[in-house]
């Protein structure tokens, strides 16, 4: 049984149009998750350790002000296009579009005011909540009126996130949730003692602005071979890596498949990621620097969390040999990611 409650969380600042932000609390026997109508943000995700003790395993803030201020997309849904688009440019049907540049020379996670920084309308479901918004033609430079639905449902140990969209003009789209996880509990120092595996035979090398070079490289014999579980800290040392911020190329297909697994031996917590998406961005919080005051006064230093963002490949709209990034009128964008929590 999942219970769903809604309550007030705060009001948007007047310069943002005011408007009430609600919090939705989804609870099963083994998982408790809190989600905002602002940015579809997962603010809290509590799961049990092997002794049955609940801990909150996602980074975030106690107040709305934390989320409306500048932060690295804690818990948000990002769009229209997750990840980076080279030089913020792409062409559709012979017309070039220019997006806002907000990450070196590139556009990142939807631009200046992406899906993470807006209020969504919400509808309570028996076991979850569905958010909706209309992204108007030209928003952040993207073509077409885009209707978007993001649905969170909780069933037992499994949290499902479904993304659907329809457009009036051909537009690139790639939606993901940008939660930062630490299975030891948010506020823990690092994720070096986590064991991770990713079911990917190849990954995308990037240039010095984090844009894929276009090469699809085999993981075999490199530090990117995570097909067998590795202990993160030791693995980074062994391969002299500063961390990960890379897309791993998943086996193509519309069916649900297991793509990543994380195990935290001290607590016994495990998290599996299943998805229908073609890629997963593995990010180890390399840009966290301890400057933000998080939940309960916690600070979040470098490598104190990891993200597993299921999505299309970065800059796919400019790389014809990457999976298709365009949604056409009359089609439906429809992807689901499932997070399954257990103990071992």
How far do the termini sit from each other? Answer: 23 Å
**What does the largest sheet look like?**
9 strands, antiparallel
Please state how the strands of the largest beta sheet are arranged side by side.
Answer: 11-12-13-14-27-23-22-17-20
Helix content: under 10%
Enumerate the spans where pLDDT stays under 50 for 5 or more consecutive residues: none
Radius of gyration of CA atoms, rounded to a whole number: 19 Å
Q: What's the total helix number?
A: 2
Q: Note the run of SSEs as H and E.
A: EEEEEHEEEEEEEEEEEEEEEHEEEEEEE
Structural category is mainly beta
What's the overall geometry?
A: globular
Task: Give structural attributes.
globular, 9-stranded antiparallel sheet, mainly beta, 5-stranded antiparallel sheet, 344 residues, single chain
In short:
The protein contains two helices and 27 strands. The protein has 344 residues and is mainly beta. β1 and β2 form a beta hairpin.
């Amino acid at each position: 049984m999942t219970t769903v409650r809604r309550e007030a969380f705060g009001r948007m600042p007047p310069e943002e149009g005011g408007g009430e932000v609600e919090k939705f609390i989804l609870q099963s026997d083994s998982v408790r998750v809190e989600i905002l109508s602002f940015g579809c943000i997962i603010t809290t995700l509590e799961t049990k350790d092997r002794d049955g003790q609940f801990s909150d395993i996602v980074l975030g803030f106690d107040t709305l002000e934390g989320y409306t201020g500048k932060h690295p997309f804690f818990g948000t849904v990002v769009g229209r296009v997750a990840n980076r688009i080279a030089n913020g440019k792409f062409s559709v049907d012979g017309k070039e579009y220019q997006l806002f540049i907000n990450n070196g020379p590139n556009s990142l996670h939807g631009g200046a005011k992406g899906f993470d920084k807006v209020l969504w309308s919400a509808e309570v479901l028996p076991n979850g909540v569905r958010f909706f918004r209309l992204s108007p033609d030209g928003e952040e430079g993207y073509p077409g009126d885009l209707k978007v639905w993001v649905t969170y449902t909780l069933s037992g140990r499994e949290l499902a996130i479904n993304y659907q969209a329809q457009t009036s003009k051909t537009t690139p789209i790639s939606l993901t949730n940008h939660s930062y996880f630490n299975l030891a509990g948010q506020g823990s120092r690092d994720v070096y003692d986590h064991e991770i595996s990713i079911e990917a035979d190849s990954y995308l090398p990037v240039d010095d602005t984090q844009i894929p070079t276009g090469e699809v490289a085999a993981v075999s014999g490199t530090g990117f071979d995570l097909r067998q579980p590795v202990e993160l800290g030791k693995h980074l040392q062994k391969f002299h890596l500063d961390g990960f911020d890379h897309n791993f190329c998943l086996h193509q297909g519309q069916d649900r498949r297991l793509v990543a697994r994380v195990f935290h031996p001290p607590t016994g917590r495990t998290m599996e990621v299943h998805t229908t998406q073609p890629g997963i961005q593995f990010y180890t919080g390399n840009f966290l620097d301890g400057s933000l005051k998080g939940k309960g006064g916690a600070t979040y230093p470098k490598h104190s969390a990891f993200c597993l963002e299921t999505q299309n490949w970065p800059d796919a709209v400019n790389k014809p040999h990457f999976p298709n990034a365009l949604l056409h009128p009359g089609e439906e964008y429809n992807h689901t990611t499932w997070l399954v929590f257990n103990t071992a």
